[in-house]
């Protein structure tokens, strides 16, 4: 039995919140004082700040990242009979949103950066294709130029799934500003995170933004006139106030994540059996997750756990191979890259509050597992 | 004098202990389906006298999830009443089903005698609304539902604590849906909702459905929603659960005072029939008033924040255009929308504020000539 010298959890929200606790509580108290719990001032402030941050003309706060995707699809008029192209290796919500509006998800395989392979789009295009839903998985932007180019040629909407990628950039453009609509999650474990569920959409299209504002608020155009039957998906004012505090820090947090990732890149690059993330020029990744591909992945995961390092797998079962995915009609082998990656990927702790010594410990433990540094297994 | 409709400043004047709970949560980071939520669900279920309660994103989501988990979808028809908040109908439409309306009674709830005529081969469910906190005639509705094998989902968003002959709302339907919106009798600091059910299987399915269909961290059993009641809000709700009875009793007492004070103003002011054995919880205190719009302006001008819930019945909303209804289809609901007025009746009103409200209404009718 090994007694780990350090314990490094995969996430540590307490560490994020400790230095800003007073500020957060003050923000909460401010909302209580105003009593504007529903679509209050903080929601509007947050929306305009997100618009600036993402360089999009409009931002609309909603109840979750999943709801952001669902409402984006609805605002663009997608439903039964329509096909939406996405990837099978994302969190299930990237697919559920399509199912929930009654449309059909069509998968394409991914590349070595875990993102949509634009070269596969042509192959799955049908007359029913209405939209592409690329996911900026792990916080790394998908290759948007060819995707946007394909979408323009075939008059498709593009819904960017930015759930993991707030502040990421592609060729100098923030994610969420390139597609028809960008959908962000503000879940507690995201890089820009509320203390509960939340989401936000960004768009440059005023009519889409107006439509979204009606859709998120039960179809109400004003207090009494309901122009379209819809559900309720509002970002809580309380969470918006918390997010406004965090917006002050998210830039610095992101740089710290990137620095942590760069540390791992150095420390783990070149180990035989380990592949560090692929960095392409002009892509700024924000490392919601720091994902390596590893030989003997499950063994490595156990070894790290035994040594006090908690890790994650995002995600071990591609959606088409989930029980629920069988109805989509794909077989094992349909998306070889995504399937191979699912066997090999491992997410290391990368949150901003990690100490240098902790990063060294994580990297050192991985190196030891592979017998680097003269400690054979 | 100003008689406010909203009471949040009074209710949360003592904010310290709530903030302590929130601080504890911020320390633990237990924000998603956390411990306070589980405790809230358990205690909410107890409050309703039901085995299971599942916290979701809103009262609206509670209805959407209840219908969808029972298989209601495109091609189905769901019966409800045009006298409700738009969310009831929005929720039905979100499942892909078609809302079908049935007129209400003079108690502002669905008229059970008129349901049968609206049933077709496509009818799958009835969503009775315990509107204003009054309780729909559940025994009669359940009888119709049984005869036609229809699902019943109670929209109890406005009616926590309501009862018929001691039996609480939420105990009749396959599921019942509650809202915890800041202006509800049991309220939190943002959107939230709860579904209660007797069915172990449904409760399990709903827990999956609200959380992406995740059986565990990695395995997905169904394509679900993300509709979780925030743990932070549950912490607020836990502090308020105990007050539900007090809040309800105060509202009932205030309503009785109004009823008494307006009795002799009939037919200028019409108080709905107070059914024997029904515990109406007065989320809204609504009467039907002659010269309603004038009265509303008069009261507002004199500091009484009266409101109208709601001036447009659902079948006449722009969103209903494709449903094919027209004015005259539901005379009781339409008359309601023309004449209904809501007076502040919340638990934080003082005796003086109630007396002042009464006085203003009486003055309007008794001392002011028709304008």
Describe the structure.
- The complex is a heterodimer of chains A (377) and B (371).
- With 377 residues, chain A is of the alpha/beta class.
- Chain A folds into two domains: 14-108 and 115-244, Type I PLP-dependent aspartate aminotransferase-like (Major domain) (Aspartate Aminotransferase, domain 2, 3-Layer(aba) Sandwich), CATH 3.40.640; 249-374, Aspartate Aminotransferase, domain 1.
- Helices cover 38% and strands 13% of the residues of chain A.
- In chain A, strand 4, helix 7 (144-153) and strand 5 (157-161) form a beta-alpha-beta unit.
- In chain A, helix 9 (237-268) packs across helix 12 (356-369).
- In chain B, helix 9 packs parallel to helix 12 (351-366).
- Chain B has helices at 8-11, 16-28, 35-48, 59-69, 86-94, 138-148, 200-209, 231-241, 244-262, 292-301, 331-339, 351-366, and strands at residues 52-56, 77-80, 98-101, 123-126, 151-155, 163-164, 167-168, 175-179, 193-197, 269-270, 278-279, 285-289, 340-343.
- Chain B has two domains: 8-241, 3-Layer(aba) Sandwich (Aspartate Aminotransferase, domain 2), CATH 3.40.640.10; 244-366, Aspartate Aminotransferase, domain 1, CATH 3.90.1150.10.
- Chain B is 37% helix and 13% strand.
- Chains A and B meet through helix 1, helix 2, helix 4, helix 5 and helix 9 of A and helix 2, helix 4, helix 5 and helix 8 of B.
């Amino acid at each position: 039995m090994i007694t780990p010298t350090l314990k490094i959890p995969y996430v540590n929200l307490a560490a994020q919140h400790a230095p800003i606790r007073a500020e957060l509580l003050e923000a909460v108290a401010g909302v209580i004082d105003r009593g504007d719990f529903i679509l209050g001032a903080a929601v509007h402030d947050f929306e305009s700040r997100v618009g600036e941050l993402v360089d999009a003309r409009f931002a609309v706060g909603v109840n979750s990242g999943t709801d952001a995707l669902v409402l984006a699809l609805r605002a663009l008029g997608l439903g039964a009979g329509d096909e939406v192209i996405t990837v099978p290796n994302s969190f299930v919500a990237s697919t559920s949103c399509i199912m929930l509006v009654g449309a059909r998800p069509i998968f394409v395989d991914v590349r070595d950066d875990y993102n949509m392979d634009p070269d596969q789009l042509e192959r799955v295009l049908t007359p029913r294709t209405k939209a592409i839903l690329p996911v900026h998985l792990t916080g790394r932007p998908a290759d948007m130029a060819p995707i946007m180019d394909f979408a323009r040629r075939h008059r498709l909407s593009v819904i960017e799934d930015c759930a993991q990628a707030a502040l990421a950039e592609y060729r100098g453009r923030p994610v969420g500003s390139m597609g028809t609509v960008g959908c962000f999650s503000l879940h507690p474990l995201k890089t820009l995170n509320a203390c509960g569920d939340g989401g936000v959409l960004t768009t440059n299209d005023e009519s889409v933004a107006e439509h979204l504002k009606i859709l998120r608020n039960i179809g109400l155009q004003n207090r009494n006139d309901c122009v379209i039957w819809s559900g309720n998906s509002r970002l809580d004012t309380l969470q918006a106030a918390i997010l406004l505090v965090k917006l002050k820090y998210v830039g610095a947090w992101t740089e710290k994540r990137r620095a942590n990732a760069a540390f791992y890149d150095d420390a783990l690059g070149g180990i035989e059996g380990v592949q560090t993330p692929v960095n392409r020029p002009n892509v700024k990744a924000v490392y919601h997750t720091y994902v390596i591909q590893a030989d003997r992945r499950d063994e490595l995961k156990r070894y790290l756990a035994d040594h006090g390092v908690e890790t994650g797998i995002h995600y071990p079962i591609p959606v088409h191979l989930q029980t629920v995915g069988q109805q989509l009609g794909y077989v094992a082998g349909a998306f070889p890259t995504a399937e191979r990656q699912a066997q090999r990927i491992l997410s290391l702790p990368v949150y901003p509050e990690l100490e240098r010594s902790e990063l060294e410990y994580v990297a050192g433990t991985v190196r030891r597992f592979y017998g680097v540094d003269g400690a054979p297994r | 004098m100003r008689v406010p409709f909203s009471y949040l400043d009074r209710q949360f004047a003592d904010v310290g202990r709530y903030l302590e709970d929130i601080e504890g949560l911020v320390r633990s980071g237990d924000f998603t389906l956390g411990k306070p939520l589980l405790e809230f669900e358990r205690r909410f279920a107890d409050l309703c006298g039901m085995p299971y309660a599942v916290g979701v994103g809103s009262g609206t989501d509670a209805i959407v999830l209840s219908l969808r988990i029972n298989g209601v979808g495109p091609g189905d028809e769901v019966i409800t009443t045009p006298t409700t908040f738009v969310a009831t109908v929005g929720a039905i439409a979100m499942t892909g089903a078609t809302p079908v309306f049935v007129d209400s009674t003079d108690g502002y709830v669905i008229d059970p005698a008129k349901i049968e005529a609206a049933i077709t081969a496509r009818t799958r469910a009835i969503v009775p609304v315990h509107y204003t906190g009054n309780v729909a005639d559940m025994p009669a509705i359940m009888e119709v539902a049984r005869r036609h094998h229809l699902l019943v989902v109670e929209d109890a968003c406005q009616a926590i604590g309501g009862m018929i002959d001691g039996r609480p709302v939420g105990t009749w339907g396959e599921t019942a849906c509650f809202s915890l919106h800041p202006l509800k009798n049991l309220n939190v600091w943002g959107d939230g909702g709860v579904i209660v059910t007797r069915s172990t299987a449904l409760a399990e399915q709903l827990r999956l459905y609200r959380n992406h269909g995740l059986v565990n961290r990695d395995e997905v059993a169904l394509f679900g929603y993300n509709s979780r009641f925030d743990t932070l809000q549950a912490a607020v709700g836990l502090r308020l659960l105990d007050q539900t009875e007090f809040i309800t009793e105060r509202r009932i007492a205030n309503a009785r005072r109004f009823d008494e004070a307006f009795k002799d103003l009939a037919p200028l002011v019409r108080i709905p029939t107070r059914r024997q054995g029904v515990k109406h919880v007065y989320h809204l205190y609504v009467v039907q008033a002659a010269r309603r719009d004038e009265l509303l302006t008069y009261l507002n001008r004199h500091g009484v924040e009266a409101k109208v819930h709601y001036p447009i019945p659902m079948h006449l909303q722009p969103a209903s255009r494709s449903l094919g209804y027209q004015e005259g289809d539901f005379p009781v609901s339409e008359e309601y929308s023309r004449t209904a007025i809501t007076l502040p009746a919340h638990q934080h009103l003082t005796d003086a504020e109630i007396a002042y409200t009464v006085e203003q209404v009486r003055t309007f009718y008794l001392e002011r000539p028709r304008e």
